[in-house]
Amino acid sequence: MANYSITPLNVGQFPDLAKPVLTYMHGFGETLRVPIVMWAIEGGNERILVDTGSGNPERSLEYHRLLEQDETQRPAIALERIGWKPEDVSLVILTHLHWDHCGNNHLFKQAQFIVQEDEIRYAISPLPAHSVAYETPDIGARPLWLETYSQFKLIQGDLQIAPGISTVHLPGHCPGFQGVLVDTTDGPYLIAGDCVPLYESWQGREHEAYIPSGVHTDLRSCYRSFKKIEKIGAKVLPGHDMRIFKEFAYPP
Q1: pTM of the predicted protein model
Q2: How far, in Å, CA of 27 to CA of 31, rounded?
């Protein structure tokens, strides 16, 4: 078993996100304080990052919603917490191309970016309901991921990226969503991202084994992806749950 560790880095938070955005048809009238997360994977020959967070708070407020980000949560400074600099990162795996997961790609000038081919196709021409999430020209924006497109490596489906680290195609939230499966001394962990935004999403509730995200392109695919995760049998790390920061790193 590989000796990787996974460190979640908090690079900002939405202070009052409507809960049904993350829990489909549940939590009406409730709001949540949810983090924006970059995941650092250490232990191999490369320094690997999963997602790069949102753009700056000013851009977020212009196109999206209020984003809080103090000085310590700026991505380059957050990396200092584990002794990294942006130029140390050789590989970035993007779970998908929504604005809050690829907004700081430009910091990682030495990195190759791993993206699902299906995700690029959809991000270029999404349904109107998803134009804001992808920051398409329809809303007067230019997607930030375009700045680093020349560094993208497009893949299809599940793929071993490095010994003990694989992408897992988990469509539903968007067509090209991918989780990242990481071998550790405590068994496999899955960085599940927005496929499983909260621990609650995975734990479910009475009569519902799982709760999909309120943002999705294919609800049936969401449920198939939950089943796929179940078969993998890994420990699941959700994408937007403050409780992930109870531990400095995983395994604890």
Answers
A1: 0.97
A2: 8
